[in-house]
User: Fold this.
Amino acid sequence: MTVSPTARQLVEAAESLFTAGVMSHSGHANLSARLDSDRFLLTPGFVRGLRPTDLATVTLDGQLLEGELRSVSTEIIAMHSAVYRARPRVGAIIHTHSPAATAFAVAHRPLPCRTEPMLRFGQPEDVPVVPWGPRGSDVSVRGIASVLSQRPTTSAVLLANHGLLVFGPDSAATAHLVVAIEESAEAELAAAALGGAVDFPAGALADVQAAIARAAS
Ligand SMILES: [Zn+2]
Assistant:
């Protein structure tokens, strides 16, 4: 079996999350990478010790084309498909229970963009919260699609009472953004003990947003 660069990059991205220390104790995550308009690679239900040949190939409609998926992974196909459908330019998606970001998800608090890494690595706006719904359920998937349509430039959402969902052009960039978001959530929580985090100066977010819009056009 030949291993595609897309598969290799996805496995490297998964490893980088452990190396960066942004995983929860359980090591739970699922990652995917788009192959074309209708197919994507998906982690099989675990990410620790993942090899490229462990990845499954599925369609946006949830059909398993190649590989094996644990039943827990079958549930999350729809979560990934909702993002690929809403965002044709998205090439990779990562879901984690990164602890500090998950604290914001559990508190139903959007995560503000108040750190340099978040500003620079693709999320120059707050991370919105998607209302809770059981994992992979229609309620959850519709909630994700709804927030993505309301927030056309966000590259991440917090899943209420659950965790973090981040998406980007490829696996490496998406993993970088997961790390930037988790760092930002940690900094927000630490700054709360010092009286609270402070916003960027007026115009800082708008300048970066304008630069991103120019690059995308
Ligand atoms: Zn989860």
